[in-house]
Amino acid sequence: KCSSGFYLxxxxxxxxxxxxxxxxxxxxQGKTKFDTLPNRKVKIGDIDPEIxxxxxRLAGIDTSIPLQEALFNLSVMDENRVxxxxxxxxxxxxxxxxxxxxxxxxxxxxxxDKVKVLDRKDFEGGLVSQIDESIKxxxxxxxxxxxxxxxxxKEIPEYPMExxxxxxxxxxxxxxxxxxxxxxxVDI
Length: 188
Description:
Layout: H1 19-28, H2 49-59, H3 67-73, H4 85-91, E1 104-110, E2 116-123, H5 127-140, E3 144-148, E4 153-157, H6 161-174, E5 184-187
Parallel strand pairs: 1-5
Antiparallel strand pairs: 1-2, 3-4
Helix pairs in contact: 5-6
């Protein structure tokens, strides 16, 4: 580093790093994680208390905890009441307001050419909602086999539910939020 910026290497062949190269370098070094970065644009009023309560219920945590205490305990708000990116993504109803790429597009096509669209939907809610809605879309747009051997029938989805869930969660959790336009696309 010198007074005029960051450089890829020292010496006469030094090349100045672009802003994106600096961000990528710091991120790759584990110094900065997108989800823990404070986001001063997000206000406490942008957080939906019902989404927080639903999350607490799913996690088996007491839902009578005051909102700000819950957010602090979940490490999505600091002692100065600043919400971080994870808080905005998980607990706001419209994270796309701050992150243009924070949505999922699910589409079902006729054939492999992706020319004729049979069904398509964008999901822009919080992360848990995006996961749930994407899974429902895949289940609604894939085949279901019925096996009847006893009194009850057994439903066998075209794809294992665990694999669908894991793929969608991984895509959402590991998408590059530093990269504008990197929304998740689920194609059938």
